[in-house]
């Protein structure tokens, strides 16, 4: 059915991204063609690299452990969670569905929604993808934050079809305010205040660079969340946090959401730490790139390479690419050699393999730019190099193309627009806090 819009879209995607190697169908098709050279130059580049060193295979190092709060919420209320992905330059909607193990039937259904092609067939103008799943892992909602500031929402209706709605981002949606005090776990306290599991996780994500929600909360800390009411639906899914505040003993953290889907302080400073792409401090030669469908140069088996290798002399300094803490600092792993695993914020994990020297210990807090170790040739490695891995929400991603937090503040016109758009939220929180929080704090101090 060449007239079918979905078929046309797929054909176009296939043409444009026929070198995108993570699609089994593309690989299978490609391999069946006589005289086909796999991914054009990749295999030749790889075999050159192989003489220098053998890149590590996935099965030899377990996936990093999940954030405890995330695991807990997924087990208790998995289906409510908004999952998030920031597409990089090379992404298309096919690879996105493949890499996230989403159902292709849902993708077909998305393309059936009216005007959907305009938004789905090209992710270049998509800033952020967010989605919620039913318990059976099928798609319930998909939301695209466009670079224009528009939000495109696909919602599955009772007929199991997706309907598409567009919001311009100019108007502040109706919102509901939730406030509470933390006693025991954040999860219990926030649930008691009527906050959904999805919003609790979002709250922890917003402040991931300021606070470790697994460790840094104290009894008596208070929270205030302004949640978009317009996205609430009968299936138990709710909307985004528009603004959030956390009152701790010495500090008040405030975040407001802008039309780009990111959270800033009321002054327009981004809440996320900046994230450097290069842990070696400078660009070095990539000897073997990230490739989920890489074939072993000798056996021909598919052996994904979930990291980036830089060929550098033994003893080259490795720096923390962002603030974080050390989850693992192990020596003599049979494959990884001496290696470090670091958690950066709540959503990111980075790993550094084959090191000659470890300068950090497990549990240690590090700041961006701290020296954490020196490169080497330990473990399963046949030449000096750094094997570097980046995981976002537990998924291995290509650090060379991933969209990383810039930490850049809003400036000029953008700052003016931001302040105008978010002023009502800040005012609402100020009013609430003067009523509830400051008053109650005064009371408690006068009583004691
Ligand atoms: Zn490698």
Question: What would a concise description of this structure say?
Answer:
By secondary structure, this protein is α+β, with helices and mostly antiparallel strands. The protein is 26% helix and 26% strand.
Question: Could you outline the blueprint of secondary structure elements for this entry?
Answer:
Elements: H1 5-16, H2 24-32, H3 42-52, H4 68-77, E1 83-85, H5 93-99, H6 104-112, H7 117-120, E2 126-133, E3 139-146, E4 151-156, E5 162-167, E6 175-181, H8 186-192, H9 197-206, E7 222-228, E8 241-247, E9 252-257, E10 263-264, E11 286-288, E12 308-310, E13 317-319, E14 324-333, E15 337-344, E16 348-358, E17 365-366, E18 371-375, E19 386-392, E20 395-397, H10 412-447
Antiparallel strand pairs: 1-2, 2-3, 3-4, 4-5, 6-7, 7-8, 8-9, 9-10, 11-12, 12-19, 13-18, 14-15, 14-17, 15-16, 16-18, 16-19, 19-20
